Amino acid sequence: MQSYYLNYLHQPILDIDNSIHSSAVRYYPTHYRPILIDIKMDLSTFSVTLTGTKDSDITINISINSKLFQSTKDIDDFYLLHDTLLDRKFASLAEPPPIELFQGNRERFKTTLQELESYFKELFYRLDVIYDDFFLEFCGLKNHLIPKSIQSQFVNSLPPSQYMLGVSNAIVIPNLLILAYEDQTNISKFGCMWSIFEPDVLGCIQLYTFDHTIITSLTKLEEHLFEYKIRKVIVTQDHNQLIVGRGDGLVDIYHFSPLKKLVKTTTINAHCQALVLLSLCHEKIYTVGYDNSLRISNLTGSIEKGGNLTNRLQGDKIITAAMTPEMIVFGTFENNIIMYAVIPGELPKFIATFHIGEHVPIHTIIAQGSYIFVSHGNYITCFLVTKNSTSKCVMLSDKESPAYSLIVKIAEKILLSGHDNKISIWCLKTGKILCSWYTNTSKLHTLKLIEDDSLLCAGANNGEFKLWEIPKLNDIANAKSFTCAG
């Protein structure tokens, strides 16, 4: 069955479900921009007819996918269309019948109208013409095929910390926002004159309460300052405990008092270097450090299992990690991805190692089911992990800056990425950016969706924290036009 995919794509992209998305490079006159239309026009259900009499205007009847679109034109309008297309540098156009033939008797008029209909139909089989905005406007299709744009909207923000710390993590639980901060400069004030009188503040945890919605009311409840970085924070499922991963490799466990105040209960001496992973899985605390070691601890503060990955790494270094209930994924300095299977009650079991190829640094990794998403250099690559192999299935490229944080929604085939002063929303099916807007912040190391995915939180390494209201992810995935307010 012959069909056209009216999608303006730069290159074929492997679909997330392992099918190839049909696309072609198309060449347009340089003086106009193609309208982006995302509609599959099946030629077996597509039809165009012209109806009218000598004493009336001509009605254009266009049927696409069982939908009928009608518009009325004067005969002269068709010849104006032809002249306009020639002026817009469309070559090798068929010629419409001479306009004088419409002045004949009714039979001659009917025959000439059929010839004009044939000419008009041919225009629909030209991919360069069907993309032209003037042609779509003439046919009355422009407003039907290009839906009204949807918007994201900036709704709230918190100022940077007075201690010049960057946002390292954000958690939202009912009526409570928890923000973690860490020093991003890698330069301590230790040794400076004022450090004698004032200890270095390298980390911070802030708690904010809100009544009904985080959009309108945020009231600071308390602030905890630390002489070490706060790398990661997670909350237990019952929302009663806060687990804090520190820049010195230790893990603190706090209890929430009835007034939502933090009370430290225990400390786990997990690692001798900063944490790259802190996760709560199968009611155990999983940690990975820059010391290339893994620890599994319980919520009472005892280390139950652990080990070093020195032999597996063979001189390489872990720089980032991600975890799902089934798998732990490590990213290394030499661009290797190492996968381990998570087995409740046991140490993780090695699965496989693969090299991502490009000689660019890995920034972050996230894992979703059988998919691993790696931000490296200015690329975001998705790998599909199966029992016997690992294959690259999607590669996204941003020419401006790397992605420091990622959110993936596999069901909606949507990926959100935080860059230098920018947030982008990608379609994993086509590899295209659906939306991108500037945030007036620095590197975005924290992205989080809350409120049934209707709010997007973004934390930057300059300490700014901002909130955007975004449409439903299904609406974003199906949108043809998208505008954003930063």
Automatic annotation (TrEMBL):
<dbReference type="InterPro" id="IPR015943">
    <property type="entry name" value="WD40/YVTN_repeat-like_dom_sf"/>
</dbReference>
<dbReference type="InterPro" id="IPR036322">
    <property type="entry name" value="WD40_repeat_dom_sf"/>
</dbReference>
<protein>
    <submittedName>
        <fullName>Phosphoinositide-binding protein, putative</fullName>
    </submittedName>
</protein>
<dbReference type="InterPro" id="IPR001680">
    <property type="entry name" value="WD40_rpt"/>
</dbReference>
